[in-house]
Amino acid sequence: MQEETLKNCPEKIFLCGQRDKNYVAEKGLYRLDGDKDVLLDSCEDIVFDGNGSDFVFEGKKHGFLVRNCKNILLKNFSVDYADCLQICGRIADSGENFAEIIPETPWRAEGLQDVCEYLEFYPDRPTPYERGNFLYNCGKIRSILSVKEHGENIRITFSEKIKRPKIGNRAALCLTMYGHNALRFENCKGVRVENVVVYTAPGMALYAENSENLAFDGYRLQLKPDSGRLMTATADGMHFKNCRGDLLVRNCLLENSHDDAFNSAGMYMEVVEKREDVLFVRSPLGMWATYSPQVGDELEICSKADLKVKGRAKVLRVQVLPDSVLLETDRPNEISLHDLLGNKTGTPRILFENNVVRNKRNRGILLQSRDCIIRNNVFDTVLHGAVSVLVEVNHFYESIAPANIKIEDNRFKNCNMEGEADVAAVAYLPGFALGEAGIIRNIEIVGNEMSGSYQSAVCLSSVRGARICNNHISGCCKRPKRQKYRAAVSLENCAEVEIFGNRFENRKDIPEIQIKNCFDIKC
Fold first, then answer.
1. What pTM value is reported for the model?
2. Pick from 259, 279, 297: which residue ends a domain?
3. How wide is the angle at C-alpha 355 spanned by C-alphas 503 and 83, nearest 5°?
4. Which residue segment(s) compose the domain that 416 sits in?
């Protein structure tokens, strides 16, 4: 492999069509603003070695953009953004519909109109305050009414009554949520990322779509030391959409992002028109959320009403149209109008191992895939559920119904203030009705240490085939929101579940196991 040194790292790093090269940057601090970009396009067998350099981007833009590439390795650098993406400060005054903060990080008055997130933290550490408020503007949700200067302070007024913020606590205001990612991979095969740090991003810290065989080792999404920041990425820490092959995440740190630390999912396609043997499909959310399958992919056919699998079909032809995707399959007669199609082939096998996920107001792992192992990780203060195995057809229509999931030898500490459990699995039908047993299949929860959960430690719904064994569960159900979560292990609409060898250490009024509408349960 030919080696080339990038001296003084060019103002615009644009590698197009390169083959079999090892690019090494001279170590330094590089600022990229305006039209200055880092772009790898249509490259193959490329190493980009940052050599310990720091890349600082200005403006709301993608950082490292990699597209249409094969066998790419990015390593040994950090990514940060110079623009004010968040304002952090201490709460000086509050009421039932407002909070006022003393800013402690740089800010500009003209940026206040862009504030779209508000989140409270403890006064002495960057940990989300367990009884604090988390409000935002996104889509139809408009919780933040106005953000204005109030003397030397900033006053945030909300459109709803809130829990009165505690004076002296700290708060973060984010000026963006989604849109631009620090690392972005599009239509790539064979991507590796090693020893890369992301401090913040105006969107996802790391995003990949339509890509295959991805591996991440030593990737860190972390607060920048001495920055005064309370949050990292304003959206997800790692987000994978419509990827396939093997997805490996090892030895990584994911902390303080606004949204999920890790999310892997495809998207359901709905049959919106059928002309003899030709189907016209798109996501129920519109074309922007429609990901085309490839010829040869295997699709699962299911009804939106109950998410039961009706059959499978192989893709023979694909054509992308302005308002839909034309499909021909080998079993057109088995597919009806308004059926949902999930891409079974476009579902990655996931290994998530030896990672730390901490200080998260939203979820840790959101898993909508198959043949996955979540092993030997630490989940510390993940307040919306540490591991969520989910399929739903109400808001996001992300697919596919999960199956063959092993969650083993992890440590969960002080998680799940807002979710169902440290480990939860559920299928939500229209209207958030629970799906019946078997929509989600084959889950093993083995050898985990689970302590201090606010709700249940384990909550399974809509699952057929589960083993919950040899876990140590202590101090759970500290503040359950519903009767359903008032047990260490809660089952509803489940079948063929084995529960054995677990050690429970909880209050006497908290049952070990709670079962509703289940059959063939052995415990």
1. 0.95
2. 259
3. 135
4. 388-523
